[in-house]
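Need Thiamine-monophosphate kinase's 3D structure for a figure. Predict it.
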Amino acid sequence: MDEFKLIHHYFATAGCARGGESIALGIGDDCALLQPSPNHQLAISTDSLVETVHFPVQADPALLAQRALAVNLSDLAAMGAEPLGFTLALTLPSADQQWLTAFAEGLNQAALQHAISLIGGDTTRGPLSLTLTVLGQVPVGQALVRSGAQVGDLLCVSGVLGAANLALPWVLQPSTAESAQTKQLLTAYWQPQPQLALGRALRQRATAALDISDGLLADAGHLAKASGVGLVIDAHLVPCVVDLPLAQALPAALTGGDDYHLVFTLPPQHLAIIQSAFPNVRAIGQVVAGAGVELINFAAATDVKMQPGYTHF
Ligand code: ADP
Ligand code: MG
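Structure prediction for Thiamine-monophosphate kinase:
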């Protein structure tokens, strides 16, 4: 199968490539053309997934596609943006039809679920890697940036943290005899749920936000630095995986970076309305004058060694 047949068969004719209201021209020309709504800004983000760096060899292609799209959509969620379209730069060692069929199906399903259109890409031969660029839109002035946190705001997270991190042993060494709990952890890893609806609800309410990709402590540190404030996190309030010893679940929640939940700062008067629509949201601490992230009440599990957030270099 040549490059053009491959693009046509697996991508250009996929349901998610049909386009929508905002896609004036999709796959097939030199560029796609997007028509954002009036008074909106484009939100754009790129993430790459490279075999052996971000996922193991022999990873399930459908899950890989879903994780790749979810990780990118999470960045749109963290800006309060609504998805418009995405491009897919795919580098493949060979045109394996079975692999491509499963990959394209997984991608299509996730894209339709989150109402985002595949609008273009590039297809080349080489070691397996995927680079997605997502485009979204947000009303002018309403994007959730990292730099707006104010002293007195609550620090909140969008749900239980650490599940995807706790799945890593099984991600790296899949087994056929997984327990129900392991299956749940693996779902958190392979199919994270980008918090798009919450991101939109936080417009004009949250003062700062980002998605947790490096771990809560590390990403809260990025928010603190960008906003020029300090953050206090109460370890007792951090929602972590139940049914596991706290000494295992809490460090994963604090430093594991694979859940793609949101961490955000919220003036206290908005908490009740946000929690009424998003009951998994938890206040875990506060914005204070100063710098850096202070963790309090970690005593219960202090004999556990903490790893800092992941960095590539
Ligand atoms: P060009 O030479 O102009 O870069 P290509 O031959 O690479 O165009 O691609 C032809 C069309 O197919 C373009 O519209 C491009 O965006 C799209 N395309 C290529 N690869 C992919 C892919 N993996 N997924 C979706 N669209 C793709
Ligand atoms: Mg090209």
